[in-house]
Amino acid sequence: MQRLILPMLLCLLLAACAGSRPRPVVELPPLQLSPSRLPAPLALQQQLHFRFGSHERDLDALLEADADGVQLAVQAMGRTGVRLQWDGRQLTQQRAPWLPPQVRAERVLDDLQFALWPTAAIAEVLPAGWTVDDDGRHRGLSHAGTVWLQLERRDDGSLLLENRAEGYALRIESIEMTGQDP
Q1: What CATH code is carried by the domain that includes residue 137?
Q2: What percent helix, strand, coil does the chain show, rounded to 5?
Q3: Which residues of 96-114 are buried (b: 16+ CB within 10 A; e: fewer)?
Q4: pLDDT computed for residue 102 by the predictor
Q5: Hey, which of 40, 112, 127, 173 has its CA 20 to 30 A from 2?
Q6: Is the dihedral of CA 31, 33, 38, 41 positive or negative?
Q7: What is the band of 105 on the pLDDT scale with cuts at 50, 70, 90?
Q8: Inside any domain, residue 181
Q9: How many domains in the chain?
Q10: Residues 108, 7: contact at Cβ < 8 Å?
């Protein structure tokens, strides 16, 4: 479970590099789950490989999460693009001036929570018509029989998140870290 992580920020970073981001086919529901629903604290350093169409980017992320809050920093080319903090009530972010406006902290947080929080916590907040299924290897968020967001837990410990609504994929490799703040 600790090898799951961060999605989206990168998606939008890459989308901005690729030009205008196409309008999502369907709007994914917001999760905004309480940090206290996370089963155990996390302190992870991540390498992220983001693919949007034919464009690909590698990014680095630092994540700390516990029952009191979530802190995430995402870097591209050695520069911090965004830092976000979520305490269960308020989402705050610090953005670099060069960060494209398409990078939305809300989507980053939702992807992060989809990957890390328990399936039951996600199911509790979904609007009518949406379902989440998890067989231990794949987690899918579906509407009207179509999976729009899918997480695959791979044998090598990496994760693959596919956002089919917005057209991006993210491969995540994580290592635990100690004594560092994002």
Answers
A1: 2.50.20
A2: 20, 40, 40
A3: eeebeeebebebbbbbbbb
A4: 66
A5: 127
A6: positive
A7: confident
A8: no
A9: 1
A10: yes
Residue indicated by tokens 């179509």: 146
Q: Are 179 and 16 in contact (CB under 8 A)?
A: no
Q: At 93, is the pLDDT very low, low, confident or very high (cuts 50, 70, 90)?
A: very high
- Residue 107 contacts residue 100 (beta carbons within 8 Å): no
Residue 4 pLDDT > 50: no
pLDDT confidence tier of residue 149, bands split at 50, 70 and 90 = very high
How far is residue 138's CA from residue 159's CA, in Å, rounded to a whole number?
10
154 in any annotated domain: yes
Domain span including residue 130: 9-176
Kindly state whether residue 16 falls inside one of the protein's structural domains: yes
Q: Are 87 and 69 in contact (CB under 8 A)?
A: yes
**Mean pLDDT, to the nearest integer, of 42-68?**
90
Model confidence, pTM? 0.81
Does residue 182 lie within any of the structural domains? no
Q: In this structure, are residues 15 and 126 in contact, taking their beta carbons and an 8 Å threshold?
A: no
- Using CA atoms, how far apart are residues 123 and 58, in angstroms rounded to an integer? 31
Q: How far apart are alpha carbons 167 and 149 in whole angstroms?
A: 10
